[in-house]
Amino acid sequence: MEERTTLKKSLKPHWVWAIALGSSIGWGAFVQPTTWMSTAGPLGVILGFSIGALLMMLIAVSYGFLIKSFPVSGGEFAYSYISLGRTHAFISGWFLTLGYLCIVALNASAFALMVKFVFPSLLENMHMYTIAGWDVYFTEVIIASVLLGVFGYFNVRGSSLSGRMQFVFCTVMVIGVIAITFMVGAQPGAGLSNVAPLFPTDTTAFAAIISIVAIAPWAYVGFDNVPQAAEEFHFSSRKAFTLIILAIFFAALLYSMMIITTSMIEPWQSLVAQEETWGTGAAIQGLLGNMGLIVLVTALTMGIFTGLNGFTISSSRLLFAMSRAKIIPAAFSKIHPKYKTPYVGIIFTVVVAMLAPWFGRQALTWVVDMSSVGVTIAYFYTCYTAFTLFKGSRDKNFNPKKHVVAPGKKTLAGFGMVASVTFLGLLLIPGSPAALGFESFIALVIWVALGVAFYMANRKELKNIPKEELNYLILGNKKIEAKNRG
């Protein structure tokens, strides 16, 4: 049996926390407040994100247990293999790969969009064509591509460098959000009186809140980057659960602060009615002038950088784990001779993300919406695996090498499964508040078809890998039992 390639243990706890938090926040907290408030009102958005955070914490119980038990790269890919075998591991990995690649691409295009708002004359040059109503400029493509190249270079240079950078970016982002909240609150005319009405007048409070809960998998995707980096923890994997819970809590807090800040500037309904490209940016510039805009742009830039960095780390580690298991080409599991990073996966992530700006932001948004389905499926696999390993008592099927008696945690894992299925229903059932649009649904069908074709082409080779070898390659232990289905 060939020797298993492993990654260097170099990530510190606060770096991993920053990877989870920074990836969860991204650009949405700074760009989307007026859009969210138009749907749910200020209180509807805050309650929706708070409920979503609690549901994510339920799911995080399963992640914490599995990271502690199986600290390997691949995360949900490995967990799916443990409980349901190689076919389900492929399905989980296939969907997650797309989700991570899309989020890297979306963050790069978000940076170009921010530059477009601040320096419109600079970006709106060299117009090439229009896709789905979105004008594509060559300068926009260049900015996004250069940014991706820079982060790809830093990630190849080592996990410790990217981890340290992530913590700095995250710290600046948090300070920026706190600063902008107090700056707005101190202005005469701004204040909590502008927050009313708390919900939209054209819908019920329940429908408003549910419409935000439905996007929680998208809003908090990023805490699941922690298991992707588990093999590189330079600390006990037992700390992972606490780091995830802290990241989700702070993410919910930052989302809420940005909603409150935006709605305090002026009555939120008039903000929504203005239909600005970047509602929060325009409102803060109008109230605080260029100084306020600089603070906001700095926080947004850090949010974009943390998303780019965190998901580049995750996508490359997922590709590394799938390659090590011989599910995708062997090149992805190559380690850089000097920096000991999975450099082929990093380069691949950057190159694929560089293609996205050529298709326009609207087309990219369709694919990202669809990728929420993949992330939700990965949540379900994780909770299901934990559910099978937690036992209510030592029954006849109890295996001390695999199982843990924890009826409370088994119940929470069950709730996590229900939450995942609920999120999936909200995305796929027509007429639900978060149902995929037609274009996103078509993108999902195409990605599923590509996955089926890829799997069928490699099914025989995958089936021929002995179970013991696959256990070793995925989990790092020849003795760990995992089901050998399909």
Describe this structure in words.
- This protein is mainly alpha-helical and 486 residues long.
- Helices cover 70% and strands 3% of the residues.
- It has helices at residues 13-25, 28-31, 33-69, 76-84, 86-118, 120-123, 138-156, 159-185, 205-213, 216-220, 225-228, 240-265, 268-273, 279-324, 343-355, 361-389, 407-428, 438-463, 467-475, and strands at residues 127-131, 134-137, 390-391, 404-405.
- The strands form two sheets. The protein has a two-stranded antiparallel ribbon with strand order 1-2.
- Strand 1 and strand 2 (134-137) form a beta hairpin.
- It is globular, with a radius of gyration of 22 Å.
Order of helices and strands: HHHHHHEEHHHHHHHHHHEEHHH
Biggest sheet, spatial arrangement of strands: 1-2
**Share in helix:** over 70%
Gyration radius, rounded: 22 Å
Mean pLDDT, to the nearest integer, reads 88
Low-pLDDT parts are none
Strand content: under 5%
